[in-house]
Structures are given as C-alpha cells and as structure tokens.
UniProtKB/TrEMBL annotation:
Compartments in which it is found: Membrane
Positions of the Cytochrome c assembly protein domain: 188-391
Xref: Pfam families: Cytochrom_C_asm
Membrane topology field: Multi-pass membrane protein
Segments traversing the membrane: 21-41, 72-90, 110-127, 148-170, 190-208, 220-238, 258-282, 303-325, 340-358, 365-387
Cellular component per GO, a single term: plasma membrane
Keyword check for Transmembrane helix: yes
Protein name: C-type cytochrome biogenesis protein CcsB
GO molecular function terms noted in the UniProt entry: heme binding
Lineage of the species this protein comes from: Bacteria, Pseudomonadati, Pseudomonadota, Betaproteobacteria, Burkholderiales
Keywords (A to Z) from UniProt: Cytochrome c-type biogenesis, Membrane, Transmembrane, Transmembrane helix
One BP term from GO: cytochrome complex assembly
Keyword rRNA-binding: no
Natural source organism: Pseudoduganella plicata
C-alpha cells in the first residue's frame, strides 16, 4: 500500500505491473541468447549444464530489473567478448599479431587494464574523500553532488568491472583454442578466482553505492579490491599464473560452475562488510565524521552484506558437500578447506544470530565483522599456503 499526500491509502502496483517495455525487451534478449546457445552448443552439454544455461536467462533478467546498470553491462561485455572472439578467428596466436587483442581485448590485456582501473579508482575515491564534502539537496541525490574525485572513481570502477568480465569471457574462449579437452570456465585456480573475487566485491559495492546514494564507502572497499589485485599481479609475475592449464580430474565437473561463484559471492560480501566496518569504527571514534555516512547507514550496509554473503556461502557449502560426494565418495572429510569453511560459516551464523536475537549493533558488531575478514582470508588463502589436503590443487 502507498500513502497519498492527503493521507489516504492506495494500492501499490504489483511487481510485474511496474516493469516497462525496456524491461521485457531485456528479458526477451536474454532468453533468445540462452536458446541460441542451447541450440548451438547443447550437444556438448550434459543435462545439468543445460539447466544452468536456461535458468541463467530469468535470473539475469531479474537482476537487470532490480539493478538497471546491469542492462548495459551485460550487452557491453557480450559485444567486447564477441569482438575479441572474431579477432582471434580460431587462432590463439592472433593475440600477438593483432593490435586490439594484444593491447586491449585478449584476456591478459583486459585483466591488466582491469587492474589499472581498480588502482586508479581507489586513488580517486580517496581524493574524493579528502575533498570538502558537498551539500546534497532534496531535488538531486548525493551522487550528483559527489566530489569530482569520487565520481571519477566510480566510473573507473565500472570500467574495471567491464574489462574484468570481458577478460574472463575471453579467457574462457582461449582455453578452448588451446584444446577441447583443456577448455573450461575460468574459475579453477587462484589466479582466476582472485579476479572473480575482485569483480564480485566491486559489483556489490557499486550496487550499494547506488542503493544508498553515497560514494563515501568507495575508498574503504576499494582498498581490499586493490589488495587482491596487487596479489594477483604479483602471483602472475612470480608464478606465471596467467597461463591456462588443464583441469585436474577433481575439477572436471559441472558442480564447479555453481559452487565456486556462490562461494566467492560470500567471500566478496564478507570482505565488503569488513571494510564498511572499518569506516564505522573510524567514525564512531570521531574520525572523518563529516566525510562518512551516518552510522545507521554503515550498520545497515554491513548487515545486508553479511546477510547476502551468508546465504550464498551456505548454498556454496551445501553444493561443495554434494560435489565432494561425487568426486571423493563422501560428503564431508574434515579436509582443512572444509574445516575452515565451517569455521567461517559458524562465525557469520553467530554474528547474524546475535544481530537478530540480541540486537547486536555498534562497535562490537563492527569489530566482529572486521575480525571475520581475517578468518575468511585464512579460509580463502591461508589454507592454500600453510595446509594441505584434498583441495591442494589451489596451492601457491
């Protein structure tokens, strides 16, 4: 129900009645693309992969209806990716001979540009935070009054997301150019999942940036993304990690296509919540008081990010158990990665329980979310560095 100016109630239009012609055209284009892919490549898919492909259309449509920028991001990624594929012409060596592939659209080039854009976005967000905060008006949202640095940072972040997803799509195609038995979705090793982590974290941040009409959290969230990108670049140079490798037998499963993304949605949102928590702690101790959003807003973003991450991490844990049963014959083996995944899950389950049942707020919740980042980081990276087990294929 909606309230009119004279205080009377009126029936709010239903969800589908609020959709525009552009919304339905977007959904139709996604469905057509999914059906085309199914018709063209269905013979190479098993039934589970076909189901995932078909369900991706309504899922992506719902995302685009809820968050409008996705409606230009998806076509832009598709156009750049298809342009790169056309330039390859089925020959992987074209990446060294054709200008646009060598310097922009090959997977390594696009991911390098993504990295540069993320670093620059971090710099400009901090420049924006250091600038005198503008005054918002009722007529225009805060974003239109953001300092120039923050506005540039936001655009650079979007550019990084565009090029990062393009790089991932092109890398997927490049793996098949190496060999049909090598081709796989690019989420199988630390190099690829660090890219995935950076992109997911950035997209969730950009969503909250629009949802709450503030760019003042960008400097903090971009720090964790830049740290991930910095590790990615070191890992590429020191370990030659950008080279596409065949999948180990345990990863040759359709489960990987859904387990890993769900897992990293959890990791990304937990990291985002921790960086928002750091902003909360600064403001609650009297720092950057006039530069940061209200404590209530920071608390709300922290709660919603952890809630979303916990839901996806729970799904990922269940999917991981099902995958383990298929690959290793048992749902749970107390492997170090499984054990630390359980610790992460219990940590955030306790955080949400205390929030919902005991009204946990304030500095205690913020410190808990910040410490949670350390726990999550060890589960994500530390296990691979210091422990060994069934998941040792992700080792440094």
């Amino acid at each position: 129900m909606d309230i009119t100016q004279n205080g009377t109630y009126t029936e709010a239009p239903g969800y589908f009645r609020r959709l525009t012609v552009a919304d339905w055209l977007f959904a139709a284009a996604l469905l057509a693309a999914a059906l085309f892919a199914l018709n063209r490549y269905g013979a190479y898919m098993d039934v589970y992969e076909k189901v995932i492909l078909v369900l991706s259309a309504p899922t992506s449509a719902a995302l685009g209806w809820h968050w409008k920028p996705v409606r230009w991001l998806m076509p832009a990624v598709a156009l750049l990716s298809l342009g790169a594929i056309a330039l390859y012409g089925g020959n992987l060596e074209a990446a060294d001979n054709r200008f646009w592939l060598r310097y922009m659209l090959s997977s390594q080039s696009a991911i390098l540009w993504m990295s540069v854009f993320f670093f620059l976005a971090t710099l400009f967000y901090w420049i924006g935070l250091a600038s005198r905060p503008p005054k918002a008006t009722k007529e225009e949202p805060v974003q239109k009054h953001s300092p120039a640095g923050a506005a540039i940072g936001s655009r650079l972040c979007w550019g990084a997301v565009l090029l990062g997803w393009t790089g991932m799509m092109v890398r997927w195609y490049e793996s098949y150019l190496i060999g049909a038995d090598v081709g796989h979705i690019p989420i199988s090793n630390l190099y690829e999942v660090f890219i995935l982590f950076a992109l997911i974290t950035a997209m969730f941040y950009l969503y909250y940036e629009q949802r709450y009409a503030t760019r003042q959290l960008g400097p903090f969230v971009m720090l964790i993304i830049s740290a991930a990108v910095g590790f990615l670049l070191w890992y590429t140079v020191a370990r030659g990690a950008a080279e596409i490798q065949p999948l180990v037998p345990a990863l040759q499963s359709w489960w990987m296509k859904i387990h890993v993304p769900a897992n990293f949605i959890g990791y990304g949102t937990f990291a985002l919540a921790a960086m928002v928590a750091s902003a909360y702690l600064l403001k609650s101790h009297g720092y950057l008081v006039d530069r940061l959003p209200a404590l209530e807003l920071l608390d709300d973003v922290m709660y919603k990010a952890i809630s979303a991450g916990f839901a996806f991490f729970t799904i990922a844990t269940i999917l991981g158990a099902l995958w383990a049963a298929e690959a290793w014959g048992g749902y749970w083996s107390w492997d170090p990665k499984e054990t630390w995944a359980l610790i992460v899950w219990l940590n955030y389950a306790a955080w949400l329980h205390m929030r919902l049942m005991a009204g946990l707020r304030g500095r205690v919740a913020a410190w808990w979310a910040l410490v949670g980042l350390l726990v999550t980081t060890f589960a994500f990276l530390g296990v691979n560095m210091f422990l060994s087990g069934l998941h040792s294929y992700g080792a440094l």
